[in-house]
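Hi L.,

You mentioned the student needs an example of a multi-chain input paired with its predicted structure. This one should do, with 314 residues in total across all chains.
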Amino acid sequence: MASVVPLKEKKLLEVKLGELPSWILMRDFTPSGIAGAFQRGYYRYYNKYVNVKKGSIAGLSMVLAAYVFLNYCRSYKELKHERLRKYH
Amino acid sequence: MNENLFTSFTTPVILGLPLVTLIVLFPSLLFPTSNRLVSNRFVTLQQWMLQLVSKQMMSIHNSKGQTWTLMLMSLILFIGSTNLLGLLPHSFTPTTQLSMNLGMAIPLWAGAVITGFRNKTKASLAHFLPQGTPTPLIPMLVIIETISLFIQPMALAVRLTANITAGHLLIHLIGGATLALMSISTTTALITFTILILLTILEFAVAMIQAYVFTLLVSLYLHDNT
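Structure written out for the whole complex:
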């Protein structure tokens, strides 16, 4: 029984390591494809952590923590100079 | 230290692209909509809060003024959430930029005033002269009232900018002072740290109060003119 699933329809965890570059290149990089990816990601997070019967503060805090982290990455260049070192 | 203090207020640009657009749009992610009657806790809390605020703020208006409800509610949500998000470490607060606050204040104020002039011209012009002024004072008072009318949008914008900027600056300065004092004298550093905690509590309050004040004043200008 040899039912070969075409590369395009495999999920990421089923793709073999050697096939990874071609799998990435086959993804939909059109604007509507990228928008669809963001939408899918948003709803995945929303339905897992916020849109549940007993949602907790964790759903919101993870988003805020990611926001803080991204802002830190953005301003790392200026923050580099404020380390406690003898020579900068 | 001098240059460092104000670099946190520069608009974030990454490789020449305006990152500030993404930062301004970010609070909208935190207010999900739901069409259900009974939604999740997050959305329910927000809807309850919004109902509370809108009832308190829009009850003084007549039916013509209440058409502005959506505008004023989204205004208070935006300013409140942007100010509160700015209290997170390393984040950028769009409301510290005078350009943005002017962009919010001038159209709203102008809309209220022009609505008043178009629909109730005599009553709007009558606002320039308070009741019961002695006759010789009338010309001067009309001039003063005109100036005070035109200063309203400027005051709205500058009030918001100055309050939020000053708060952020104080937090930066006192935080830096606490760090510098830790190696010199721990007791003084502890006192400074207590001041920092109190200041942060104040900033949380100021963030929400400023949003409220901004919206309240716009609604007052609206009330005068509808």
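You could point out the following to them. Chain B has one domain: 4-225. The helical segments of chain B are 2-7, 20-25, 41-58, 69-85, 98-119, 121-126, 138-182, 186-225.

Best wishes,
N.
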